[in-house]
């Protein structure tokens, strides 16, 4: 019997996850199929829908907007990363029930370190945004031992709450846009985790945060560089920019590993998905 998995969300038609998992399955020789299922968040109960998929023999799910919190609440058991993130993007169905995980953060960290070639160790990191995605990346990012982390957000209080929740030996500070500490030669790594790019907008931050050697990462992705990546390049033409496609493929690779016990290569899949998007 071929194992069946799916991504659930709303909207879902745009999802690249079925393509990514098909490429992973081909690369690793796994006998599985992966579907995209739209759940009507007005008319259907997430819990009821998941119970139906379990009874039909699905082995696991990826969960995307707007159900990551519902997925957190309905799980039988939560991994450490899901607990810390307060959100779930991966379900594995076992005889013990629904095992839940969050692979978004490790997807981003692996993308920057492996595909971007930039280690977080000893780096000064600036994070823009304090929503669900940033919440999910902080733990694996801090595990990679940066020198310091500053979180800036449109609503400064959200950044402050997040900074306090993740206090460790690594200095972590928080502010609104207008109080981001200046750094000589800019920040080493800047991550845009706001949804401003979705609206074609920029967080109103000083260009001084971008240095000649900064890595500037936008969690959003598309068939061309995001407005945030363009802004960074105009500010410092020598800086390195990346979009969030590698994070998407990286979180999928971790989910695939949880389900199949095989970790696929992400770089060829990122290249193929990007070529198809263009
Ligand atoms: N590549 C991937 O695999 C991946 C995975 C997850 C998320 N993402 C992307 O990450 C982004 C954030 O997602 P999320 O789930 O964290 O969303 P979210 O929970 O809704 O949080 C949105 C964040 O963006 C800020 N924001 C919204 N509009 C803004 C604007 N016009 N100007 C400045 N800041 C603005 C919000 O600030 P306030 O707190 O002030 O409201 C908040 O910090 C999205 O672009 C999403 O597509 C990518």
Q: Output the CATH homologous superfamily of the largest domain.
A: NAD(P)-binding Rossmann-like Domain
**The top level CATH class name of the largest domain:** Alpha Beta
The ordered string of helix (H) and strand (E) elements is EHEHEHEHEEHEHEHEEEHEHH
Helix percentage? 25-40%
CATH topology of the largest domain: Rossmann fold
| Heteromolecules bound | NADP nicotinamide-adenine-dinucleotide phosphate
Number of strands: 12
Residue runs with pLDDT of under 50 for 5 or more positions: none
- In CATH, the architecture of the largest domain is 3-Layer(aba) Sandwich
Q: Identify the overall geometry.
A: globular
Instruction: Please indicate the percent range of residues in DSSP E strands (runs of 2 or more).
Output: 15-25%
Number of distinct helices: 10
Distance between the termini: 35 Å
Average pLDDT confidence is: 95
Q: Major sheet: order of its strands?
A: 2-1-3-5-6-4
Largest sheet: 6 strands, mixed
């Amino acid at each position: 019997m071929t194992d069946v998995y799916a991504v659930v969300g709303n909207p879902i038609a745009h999802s690249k996850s079925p393509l990514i998992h098909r490429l992973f399955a081909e690369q690793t020789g796994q006998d599985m199929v992966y579907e995209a299922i739209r759940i009507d968040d007005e008319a259907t109960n997430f819990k009821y829908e998941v119970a139906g998929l379990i009874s039909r023999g699905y082995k696991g799910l990826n969960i995307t907007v707007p159900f990551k919190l519902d997925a957190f609440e309905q799980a039988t058991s939560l991994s450490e990363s899901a607990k810390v993130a307060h959100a779930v993007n991966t379900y594995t169905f076992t005889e013990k029930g629904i095992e839940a995980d969050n692979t978004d953060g490790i997807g981003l960290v692996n993308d920057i370190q492996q595909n971007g070639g930039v280690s977080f160790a000893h780096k000064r990191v600036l994070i823009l945004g304090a929503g669900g995605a940033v919440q999910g990346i902080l733990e694996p990012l801090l595990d990679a031992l940066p020198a310091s982390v500053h979180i800036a957000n449109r609503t400064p209080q959200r950044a402050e709450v997040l900074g306090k929740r993740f206090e460790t030996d690594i200095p972590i500070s928080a502010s609104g846009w207008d109080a981001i500490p200046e750094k000589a030669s800019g920040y080493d790594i800047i991550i845009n985790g706001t949804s401003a790019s979705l609206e074609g907008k920029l967080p109103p931050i000083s260009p001084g945060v971008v240095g000649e050697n900064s890595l500037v990462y936008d969690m959003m992705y598309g068939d061309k560089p995001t407005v945030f990546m363009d802004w960074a390049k105009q500010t410092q033409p020598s800086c390195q920019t990346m979009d969030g496609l590698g994070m998407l493929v990286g979180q999928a690779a971790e989910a695939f590993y949880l389900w199949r016990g095989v970790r696929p290569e992400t770089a060829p899949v990122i290249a193929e998905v990007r070529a198809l998007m263009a």
